Structure prediction request, 384 residues.
Amino acid sequence: MDSEPVYQALFLGAGARVRGGFGQFTHLLYEAVEEFDPGSCTTLTLTRSEGSLADIWRAVGSARNVVSNFPILAWKRVIFRPLAALLIARLRGRRVILLQHEWAGLHWLRRIAYLPALLLADTIVMFSPLVRRGLADDWLAGWTARKCVLAPLPPNIEAPPGIADSRLRQRLAAARKEGRLVIGYFGSIYPGKQPKALLRIGAILRDRGQNPLIVYVGSFIQGTDNVEQEFYARAAELGIIDDVIVSDYVASDHEVFGLLSQIDAFCYLLDEGLTARRSGILACAQSGRPVIVTGPAEPDEFDHHPRFKELIDRGAIVVVARGSDDEAYADRIVSALKWPSVQAPFDFDGWWLDIALALRTQFGSLIPSPGTAPDAAQTPPAET
Prediction:
């Protein structure tokens, strides 16, 4: 017979040393819940070399709820252990809370690999109504959308009190002194974020005499597609390959925000429109530079996320109507740079408290409660 659980929740993760992606997100979420409710949670590291079945059995028995992002690490490398943990949790009568960031935009092989986690979950936490609708429309897994609740996604990285200089930062600063317009893109470079679309905007601004420099602070995701080769081929075709910089992976937050501080404006053209799961957009907003992005597909996209909505309402995030042509984005970049800059405090801890509260409300119930996690009603208002 199982002993009484000691903890409210067990967080499955890849260890505190992992930076970026879902691994870091899980670690920050664990810390936020612990900050709100000290001593209520514990963690279990699952990698290719850590987390035996015996470890999983003991750890799962110590908590009432098991919380997991899926995947924990690169999806092809660490699949079995977290799925085993979720299965053991169900066998031992523990509640499984799955954090699912994306669905319809995933490759079909990934969706098949993730499907067992959806089936084992009691509650599926999502961060965007659009992503939840994408799951609901799935012919195979759509019924699992009934398990979904919405929670407000916080930024994955925080602007540090100081910044680190770098050779690239010096290059960007010199370009701005020469009067160049530095347009930025932050985050991993992959087709879902339409990185090549910004190249077209750069070509338009060049033809207008703006002398742009397009800077991608991030690296290409390696996959089955020839993303990097196609990107540079498109830049060469547009005649702006000498006006494009890709930083590759930047390890330090101090260096990241040092680079972001030298960008005049950010721009994203997104087929799906802006969604509440775009944490990279929130990192850009912390820099105080305007972020120009395609407007959301649905009017309710940010109803569960008042802090994200506030950034849009005050113009830190500038939305462009869906269906607009590239000229409209170029126009909006130029006009946004003419507006007075208003740098409001960014309550990073408050953003994480919001999701901690939303997740914590799921710990006490034995029966899933589909709908929206009551974050907006119970969290403090965003600082202004």
User: Anything to note?
Assistant: The mean pLDDT is 88. The two ends are 52 Å apart (CA to CA). The chain has two domains: 7-156+350-378, 167-336. The chain has 14 helices and twelve strands.
